[in-house]
Amino acid sequence: MPHTEQIWRNVDAVRREAPLVHSITNFVVMNVTANALLAAGASPIMAHAREEMAELINIVSALVLNIGTLSAPWIDSMFLAGAAARERGLPVVLDPVGAGASTLRTTTAAQLMERVRPAIVRGNGSEIMALAGAAGATRGVDSTRDAHAAADSARALSLRHRCVTVVSGPVDLITDGDEVVLVTGGHALMPRVTGMGCTSTVLVAAHAAVAASPLEGAVSGMAAMSAAGSMAAERAAGPGSFAMHFIDALYALSEADIRARVRVGRP
Amino acid sequence: MPHTEQIWRNVDAVRREAPLVHSITNFVVMNVTANALLAAGASPIMAHAREEMAELINIVSALVLNIGTLSAPWIDSMFLAGAAARERGLPVVLDPVGAGASTLRTTTAAQLMERVRPAIVRGNGSEIMALAGAAGATRGVDSTRDAHAAADSARALSLRHRCVTVVSGPVDLITDGDEVVLVTGGHALMPRVTGMGCTSTVLVAAHAAVAASPLEGAVSGMAAMSAAGSMAAERAAGPGSFAMHFIDALYALSEADIRARVRVGRP
Amino acid sequence: MPHTEQIWRNVDAVRREAPLVHSITNFVVMNVTANALLAAGASPIMAHAREEMAELINIVSALVLNIGTLSAPWIDSMFLAGAAARERGLPVVLDPVGAGASTLRTTTAAQLMERVRPAIVRGNGSEIMALAGAAGATRGVDSTRDAHAAADSARALSLRHRCVTVVSGPVDLITDGDEVVLVTGGHALMPRVTGMGCTSTVLVAAHAAVAASPLEGAVSGMAAMSAAGSMAAERAAGPGSFAMHFIDALYALSEADIRARVRVGRP
Fold first, then answer.
1. Does A187 map to a domain?
2. A46: nearest CB among C28, C102, C243
3. What is the pLDDT of residue B3?
4. Are C27 and B29 in contact (CB < 8 Å)?
5. Residues of chain C with pLDDT under 70
6. In chain A, which residue's Cα lies nearest the Cα of C71?
7. Does the residue A228 lie in any domain?
8. What is the least distance, in Å, from the CA of C33 to any CA of chain A?
9. How many CB atoms lie within 10 A of CB C231?
């Protein structure tokens, strides 16, 4: 189970190695996730044209597939990029935004799990339960389940697809189907800022690009997110200033901040 | 005519009921309008794929159609979502961004008025005049007319389409064709921040989802916008910090703020 | 060679004339570049539908073509808008985001140079070298070359296409193939904020709309960018607050700020 030293090693490695992270993602969060990657020391690229997928996958270190504003041509590119990334052995991270809210989202996410086989999937409780086929309604793109209630679904999903599953919430749960890790930190303002979940997904991808294993990358990415969230909340007067301070905190994040603000443990 | 108590009741109801607002909107404002909805206590969803329109309309409480970056497939989805929302009796709010600047925009907005019959349309003076068929040029997406000059167009549009029309400007004018309400507040920095008009549209939609009538929802949404704008301006050093403080202000908005900062009256 | 007085004259002219700048640009930077234009006193419009290109070009003062998130229909609209702008004699500014990273980007940028003949092209060192056909790899969308290393490519590109070439970096290089101007200013945080390069492109377009020549507009646009960047850095605690202060600085920029913070000179 990763400890502060390992989390810090990955935060530092992202800054030193500046992994190029390719996102095929939703329109709402493109700007904020690109800024989060840059603040963390990584380098973002976003593209969705079929014609350039193979070439771009050749130069990147991780791939994010985010289904928040799907349409047919973007789905095609996700499968194309996913296949190319898998062939190259790159970590692929799936963000199943709104899975459970529509057949298109649930089906696309399930097919990406089957055919792309992402190393990591990160969603809220409702999304992970929808993806695992559990009963439970997704209410739009915000979760109606807390992370603990989705623990069984997460383990089942990880075992079925041999992937790491991250259920984010007040306490984040990360599992490879066997080991279960809880990350505690962050702040209640985070769900009041759009794209915070999607931001944790891109941070997990950047960490996975430098980490020893997908599990370690998922844990350290979520821990960095939680530490920066906790730092930002201290200076914020509301969700607007929180969003700004969060980016500054990601940029400034030190080993001491991680030690002071995040707890990583077992259930 | 709504008074402070009614405005506050709607602000509070949005926070308690957290209406899910579906936007088919332009790329420029997706992030900022999602953040405004979250700060106000509502919940945003954005999607444009035909395949998921009907299902999503089934779980939302209001629909925003914003024509700021149109293309053929998005127009199709607007009509599809609009028809489904109308069938369910949901409030639909149209934002005719740039109507008058191109035939595509003017025609699409006019057809949405005819076929979707939105409960509320919110634009600047030029856009409302273009939609009403009045003479007057739209200059890009920013208004060249003030709210008062467009009052006749607004009343005509409301009578013709049995909708509430909002003309935003230094003084906002809201009419159902019969009653006319003026909302005074806000700040001169607001037109220097992109998407402030589109933000007022989504706030009006969130308020319409909880209000007793479209007129009341339009007035209270615009009043909340004006109060938050006035609060933000006091702390802002320019349009960048204004945008941040505006989101914080929406989040913190109290009944006393509304009372102190907004005047609602008749012409 | 433009001096402080000329730079200031253009900053002031943008505020007085409020040129309408049409961008066909990438999804990531739409919001931030629209806000930069508004803060500088210009007026943004963004649209990509073929159907409205000709009409919109008729009402704008400059056109930006940015290839950051290309797809086939957007490429069509870029050629359509570019041809219409050229016919009207409007300044067209090309931002070849990621040229060199994929064949689609390099080829599209090269064809836009050939067929649209932009007045100005603005990129980082890697992008300009890729466009000039020089050896050197683009690493995603961030530059791996500094401005000086790309000077030869910039001159060659300008001579071949009779355009002004801007290579942005710690020191910006601007050339029409004959004269070479260097702009020094800005801050090391700028590459840690997404869309800062794209922002300089839209500022150059706004300046080109009011300047005596494309060279003068390119220099004064880059100088305004550098001055605002230097001002923002003094107040910023990281890239999040930098982005906010940058917009405020663009809005507040005075002749004294330009004089104190930017050096314009020859190599």
1. no
2. C28
3. 80
4. no
5. 1-2, 135-149
6. A49
7. no
8. 11
9. 23
- Which pLDDT score is estimated for C209? 98
Quick one: C15 exposed, middle or buried, by C-beta within 10 A (0-12, 13-18, 19+)? middle
The DSSP secondary-structure symbol of B15 reads H
Yes or no, beta carbons of B104 and C49 under 8 Å apart: yes
Q: Quick one: pLDDT at residue A3?
A: 80
Question: Is A17 domain-assigned?
Answer: yes
Q: Which of B168, B179, B174 is closest to B146 using CA atoms?
A: B168
Domain count for chain A, please give it. Answer: 1
Instruction: Decide if A239 and B246 are in contact by the 8 Å CB cutoff.
Output: no
Pairing of β B62-66 and β B20-24:
parallel
* Residues of chain B falling short of pLDDT 50: 137
Name residues of chain A where pLDDT drops below 70: 1-2, 135-149
According to DSSP, the β-strands at B92-95 and A180-184 are: unpaired
pLDDT of C137 reads: 44
Q: Report the alpha-carbon angle C134-C135-C140, nearest 5.
A: 100
Question: pLDDT tens, A222-234?
Answer: 999 999 999 999 9
How many CB pairs below 8 Å do chains A and B form together?
Answer: 102
Cα A190 from Cα A232, distance rounded (Å): 10
Helices first, then strands: H and E counts in chain C? 11, 9
Asked whether residue A14 is domain-assigned, the answer is: yes
What does the pLDDT look like over B185-229, one tens digit per residue? 999 999 999 999 999 999 999 999 999 999 999 999 999 999 999
Question: Considering only CB atoms, which chain B residues are within 8 Å of A101?
Answer: 45, 52, 55-56, 59
CB-CB neighbours of C162 under 10 Å: 10
- The nearest CA of chain C is from the CA of B44 a distance in Å of 18
Domain carrying residue C121: 4-265
Helix, strand, coil percentages for chain B (3-state, nearest 5):
55, 15, 30
3-class SS at B176? coil
Q: Which of A160, A167, A228, A162 is nearest to A7 (CA)?
A: A228
Residues of B in contact with C209 (CB under 8 A): none
Contact A101 B60 (CB under 8 A): no
CATH number of domain containing B61: 3.40.1190.20
Q: Is B36 helix (H, G, I), strand (E, B) or coil?
A: helix
A167: β partners:
A123, A173
Give the model confidence (pLDDT) of B159-180 as tens digits.
999 999 999 999 999 999 999 9
